Amino acid sequence: MSSPKGLMGLRQRFFPVSRVAVDLGTANTLVYVEGQGIVLNEPSVVTVGHESGRVESIGLDAKRMLGRTPQRITAVRPLRDGVIADVDVTELMLRHFLRKAMANRFLKIRPQVIVGVPSGITELERRAVRSSAQAAGAAGVRLVPEPMAAAVGVGLPVDTPSGNMVIDIGGGTTEIAVIALAGSVADTSIRVGGDSLDSVIVEMMRRNYNLLIGEPTAEAIKIEIGSAAELDEELEMIVKGRDLVSGIPRVVKIGSPEVREAIGEPVRAIVHAVRHALEVTPPELASDIVDRGIVVTGGGAMIRGIDKLLHTDTGLKIHIDEDPLTSVVRGCGLILADLERFRPLIGE
């Protein structure tokens, strides 16, 4: 007869408790599965049929349809400004991503899930994240602030007395935190991010050229020639859109200086938030930041010259993470691997 200890071993072997980390981002959702690493990185976009209300596509397939859908289909981004704007669609999207991420598992199991969330979300928004993950099949849900997860992901010693500062510029929010002893000593969260830059680029094209472009084109402009500081060699780009006067498709050439001017206001808002976080940082931790500098993560870290602008404004060393898009989910994965050590970081 098998001993209880032997039965427990068999249960752990054949019925493993899977743990999954999710960076539920405004622009992209990333999923990390324990023992496998990052298994999914797809846009947070869903297409829905008008009359049927049925989901047509999710993720990369849905993003390809942005601005191209027929009238019977709507492309929806269920997360805005870093929080859930449409709970029902978010549940469907998250369920799809979790099932896709767990497809290679031998047994269908309900995973324990940890989700990175903006530090400034309300309790109502936290409940929406939890309910979405639970409805998507999670057995248990824990939340961790995104800047804290990003700090762990880039390898900062968050559980030591030394002060560390991280800036996570995402699609919907920018999270800034000064971290010491596994806690946030000074944090700032503003609802300004990559989406804000896309919006002002759309408005710039409308104002300067009477040209209507969609979000995907604005994002392409930001990636191709966008910059936060002057470039050694300015860039140009051909942009296609619809003329607002004639209604006919038209092509124009634009340069990086005018894009830089257009995105200046949201970029200045990010710099102002960084200065505010530094102003409220205790002096002893501020001296640590002088020595260590500031780490920048998130998709916004890839904007040309953002490190140069922040250095000019603060006088501090600025470090851009090697893979800024995955910093949060990498951190969540490391937290999963050592829950006891990082338990103070996690919200139940």
Structure description:
With 348 residues, the chain is of the alpha+beta class. The chain has three domains: 17-147 and 329-345, ATPase, nucleotide binding domain (Nucleotidyltransferase, domain 5), CATH 3.30.420; 161-192 and 265-323, Nucleotidyltransferase, domain 5 (2-Layer Sandwich), CATH 3.30.420.40; 194-264, Actin, Chain A, domain 4 (Alpha-Beta Complex). Helix content is 39%, strand content 26%. It has a five-stranded mixed sheet, with helices on both faces. The protein has a five-stranded mixed sheet with strand order 13-12-11-17-18, sandwiched between helices. Strands 5-4-6 form a three-stranded antiparallel sheet. Helix 11 links the parallel strand 17 (294-297) and strand 18 (318-320). Helix 3 crosses helix 4 (123-135), helix 5 (146-153) packs across helix 12 (327-337) and helix 6 (194-209) packs across helix 7 (215-225). It is flat and about 65 Å long.
Provide the fold topology:
Blueprint: H1 4-14, E1 19-24, E2 28-33, E3 37-43, E4 46-49, E5 55-58, H2 60-63, E6 73-76, E7 79-80, E8 83-84, H3 87-101, E9 112-117, H4 123-135, E10 140-145, H5 146-153, E11 164-169, E12 174-180, E13 183-190, H6 194-209, E14 211-212, H7 215-225, E15 236-243, E16 249-255, H8 256-262, H9 264-279, H10 283-292, E17 294-297, H11 306-314, E18 318-320, H12 327-337, H13 339-342
Parallel strand pairs: 1-9, 9-10, 11-17, 17-18
Antiparallel strand pairs: 1-2, 2-3, 4-5, 4-6, 7-8, 11-12, 12-13, 14-15, 15-16
Helix pairs in contact: 3-4, 5-12, 6-7
